[in-house]
Amino acid sequence: MAAEGYREAGHLPNLRPGGQPAAPEELPRQRNGVTPQMRGRYPDYNVLEEADHWDPVTRRVVFERVESVPPIRFFTAPEALTLGVFCDLVLAQDAEPKIPVLGMVDAKLFAGELDGFRYADLPDDRETWRRVAVGLDVAARQHGAPDFVNASEDVRERVVDAFAKGQLHGEVWDDLAPARAWKVVTRAMLSAFYSHPWAWNEIGFGGPAYPRGYARIGAGQRENWEGAEAFALDPVKDTQQRQVQGT
Amino acid sequence: MSRRHELRTLLRGALRPPENDSAFLLDVHRRAVPRERMARYDDAYPVDLVIVGAGAGGGTLAQRLARRGWKVVVLESGPFWDPDEDWVSDEAGSHRLYWTEERIIGGSDPVELGKNNSGHGVGGSMVHYAGYCPRFHPSDFEVRTRDGVGEDWPISYEDLKPHYERLELELPVAGDYWPWGDPHRYPHTAHPIAGGADVARGGARKLGIEMRVGPVGITNGAFGNRPHCIYRGFCLQGCKVNAKASPLVTHIPDAIEHGAEIRADCMAMDIEVDESSGRVTGVHYMSDGRERFQRAEAVAVAGYSIETPRLLLNSISRRFPHGLANNNDQVGRCVMVQGAPQVAGRFPDEMRMYKAPPPEISSEQFYETDERRGFARGFSIQTVGPLPIEHAQHVLGHGHWGQALREYMRDYNHWYTLGILSELLPLPDNRVTVVPSVTDRNGIPVARMDYSQCENDRKNIAYAKQTLHNIFEAGGAQDVLVTDRYAHLVGGCRMGADPERSVVDADHRAWDVPNLFIADGSVMPTQGSANPALTIMALASRLAERLDRGRAGVSGARERRRRQLRPRPAPTRAGAG
């Protein structure tokens, strides 16, 4: 696949047996800037190097996200432990560096920054998060584990998979529609993760674009400052040729 | 082709709209609307009209009537935006553009609100709409007669046509010649389109589906002091460029120039009724934590499909114990959304769909009923260009999480996304109500919106999704991801010919309340599969014309002045109240 680069789509989960992507170790590594877990499709692209081209108000908002890691103030310590493991699993943050997703969610909930609606059969988003923490333990115990955090990796994955499919039952889940609760918690998690410039590096997103704008909008085109995709070249040979030390 | 038509074609983009100088009143060096000279009215001074809401309906109505000499105050719950300072070129950072106060959603197919469809602040939801500005089709106004579903409007396409034409010059709208509905041209030429739109258009063509560029309310060329679009792609986060049309830049500047006061950060709480005459006398509102009352000769509510019913239902009086204008139990009913599933396709080339405005091309070929499809009415096809957070929700909505989600997201630049607007039918049990036990920070009961689809709706959405799937396959997509969602609120206080089945008459006037009008998308009896913004503006423009000519039962400002019913003090410069 590496020889073909990413014009082919064989790396996509829908097109692979079992519906799962290649193991993370097989993915290209980031060489410039930071990405979550240092995996990235655009190894030499660091969106933060473009910050001089952003308007000052946007620059402030984005750098605040990178520079301040919000403390946990809304969740209790046990809740934060459970939900932290849960967030890492849903977003596949299995190594450092990690985007502090739970801290970002906590900050929003602590400030009461909600999204303007709640399902009639769910409590307010804040309470939904707390009950999900309880519910993850409930589901893990149904598999014989002491709780979610101390469950085996396999059990944790089965719990999250059942949650994603709306198939959790018993105790707290009898009053908390799992399919809707899943929407509530993932909405906040995705909003945190993909608002972070490290994630933009990973996916090659151009980031803030005012006042510069875009000129090259055709298929296969990019601005001269936008990152090139890995790897029409073999990653190992390319790294050696460029005399990059370590990975 | 008439000479006038030929001349217009020749002058495309060079025409200045008649009777609206907004684009020329903006500042060249900053984006904020100049309001140093804005009139300030005293609360006790009975203005000709108080409008609740400064969005597509309220903003247009204020501009039209201010031009005609009416003394107008607009109460807006949100801020008076300064695009330079208040808006960011960032997805998550745009949270404050949306209506984020509590609302409850129910029914078997609940509609998510907030950033999906609910704005606040001067400019309303058009601040964060994508920019599509299609007209409704003539068929939309008579779906009951033609298709046996929904409801006929008490007005026809011809009633709105002159207002569509005028507004397309004011926004201005850019696009290809439009062959669907009532065929027409646009004042600004079509924008260039990005790679993904080009591929989708090619795929559609192979299936015999025609897609055309536009129509979008985005300048293509300088327009007064509004610059050309820079293809930044953040249309849904508020246009920092001032290239995308919203009332904030298209109508509010001219309204202010002609003496309207736009009073921001003022939350309307209830409308007062004179129990003896049954006329409304003004609006109670909260400003800076203080309750105030603006007196007015007439009131127009333009708070959109949730806040308008909420305000009426929260305005309780002896004459209207179940809410203002609700003696026939119609307020809040038949609220509508469009089915808006999105289908993303994966291509060998990088598409980088974050570039260029999300609205690029569209097709209205499936707009009307085709019995072979097995359901009434139809849908339109558009482009959406989701930014990373939105696309991640799309991937997750298809069922991928964990490593699979991350891998799909790393592939973001190879994807392009089409969206559907399916015409879902008006159903009386789809309704906005208020929940007395849940109140906002001002102590006002919040709104609840219940929504459930009918069989025709489900068939329409399923057929439309398959059509998009086919387009991408024909275009050479290597993988396709589908997710369901809704778009655009309308209805809830519909206009009609029968007081038993509607809230307002053909002049937007509430049955039983001679000086209360509704001037937003909530009056729509049906929604077609067109984005509602331009039609909401056209309805407000028509209402203004009728009010000013005294045809809507409230005497126009000029007429009252001629009769010298009372002295007309000049607006004061000092703060009101």
Which superfamily, in CATH terms, is the homologous superfamily of chain B? FAD/NAD(P)-binding domain
Number of helices of chain B: 15
Number of domains of chain B: 1
Mean pLDDT of chain A: 92
**Mean pLDDT of chain B, as a whole number?**
93
What strand line-up does the widest sheet of chain B have?
Answer: 4-12-13-14-11-17
- Uncertain segments of chain A of ≥5 residues (pLDDT<50)? none
Helical region count of chain A? 8
CA-atom Rg of chain B in angstroms:
23 Å
**Overall spatial form of chain B:** globular
CATH class of chain B: Alpha Beta
The structural class of chain A is mainly alpha
Describe this entry's structure for a reader.
The complex is a heterodimer of chains A (247) and B (577). Chain A has 247 residues and is mostly helical. Chain A has a domain at 77-193. Chain A is 39% helix and 1% strand. Chain A is built from eight helices and one strand. With 577 residues, chain B is α/β, with parallel strands linked by helices. In chain B, helix 6 packs across helix 14. At the A-B interface, helix 1, strand 1, helix 5, helix 6 and helix 7 of A face helix 4, strand 3, helix 7, helix 11 and helix 12 of B. Strand 1 (118-119) of chain A pairs parallel with strand 3 of chain B, so a sheet runs across the interface.
Give a brief description.
The complex is a heterodimer of chains A (247) and B (577). By secondary structure, chain A is mainly α.
Write a concise keyword list for the protein shown above.
heterodimer; A: 247 residues; mainly alpha; 8 helices; B: 577 residues; alpha/beta; FAD/NAD(P)-binding domain; six-stranded antiparallel beta sheet; five-stranded parallel beta sheet; 15 helices; globular
Layout: helices, strands, pairs:
The complex is a heterodimer of chains A (247) and B (577).
Chain A: H1 56-67, H2 77-90, H3 101-110, E1 118-119, H4 125-142, H5 153-164, H6 178-193, H7 197-203, H8 235-241
Helix pairs in contact in A: 2-4, 3-6
Chain B: H1 3-10, H2 22-25, E1 49-52, H3 56-67, E2 72-75, H4 83-86, E3 104-106, H5 143-147, H6 157-170, H7 195-206, E4 212-213, H8 247-250, H9 252-257, E5 261-263, E6 266-273, E7 280-287, E8 290-295, E9 299-301, H10 304-313, E10 336-339, E11 342-346, E12 361-363, E13 379-383, H11 388-397, H12 403-410, E14 415-422, E15 431-439, E16 445-450, H13 455-474, E17 480-483, E18 486-490, E19 516-518, H14 533-548, H15 557-563
Helix pairs in contact in B: 3-14, 6-14, 7-13
